Amino acid sequence: MPRFLRQSLAYSFLLIGIISCKSYELTDVKPLSGSPQTVENLYFSSNQDYVYKCQMDIYKNHISGILIIKKINETTHRVAMTSDFGNKLIDFEISDQNFKLNYVLPDLDKKIVVNFLRNDFQQLLKREYQVNDGFENNKDRIYLSRVHNKSYYLFFDKENGLLKQIIYTKNRKEKIDFTFEAKKHIFADSLNLQHKDFKINIKLFQITETE
Q1: Would you list the DSSP string of 15-81?
Q2: What is the pTM of this model?
Q3: CA distance 184 to 156
Q4: At 108, is the pLDDT very low, low, confident or very high (cuts 50, 70, 90)?
Q5: For 13-17, 102-106, 134-138, 141-145, which range has the lowest pLDDT when averaged over its residues?
Q6: pLDDT tier, 21 (very low <50, low <70, confident <90, very high otherwise)
Q7: Strand (E) positions, 105-186?
Q8: Are 90 and 104 in contact (CB under 8 A)?
């Protein structure tokens, strides 16, 4: 893992600037009447630890380990990842506005790596969204939340009411697709985080479930 991070990451991220993203648009939807003022992502709202098997793919390079997400207070989570052999890789505290790096493995201590983790987890752990517009199709209710040049499309399953997907866009370009599988509104059994403008994919699979 350290070898590829030293040799591959710098080159790989040079490709970001030349990969284009299409503007994101909803298709086959109609306006939804009576949208709520806010909606929430409650998957990380419990005070218990969220423990996942983590698989991270970066330009055909693979990292795996255990990821723990713990809610510290109403605005902040602590995120820690260890390797499959129990070695600590990274430990940080994060909220919508703040980021505190407690530890990072020296070979991971690269600005571009830390920045993408910070951005990914700020988007993933964002809880409350102001609703600007609502749509629906046969299966989902879709709420649009705009914050400056960022937009979030939250897809809630009509049948069970659970959040199944968040599409994060910036400057109208799709950046990250968060896809959830869940049986409870406070706990996602699995998560697939797929970047659209460069080749990074993070997958989380349940190890322990909250009550």
Answers
A1: TGGG---PBP---S-EE-SS--SEEE--TT-SSS-EEEEEEEEETTEEEEEEEEEEE-SSS-EEEEE
A2: 0.87
A3: 13
A4: confident
A5: 13-17
A6: low
A7: 128-130, 133-136, 140-147, 150-157, 163-170, 173-184
A8: yes
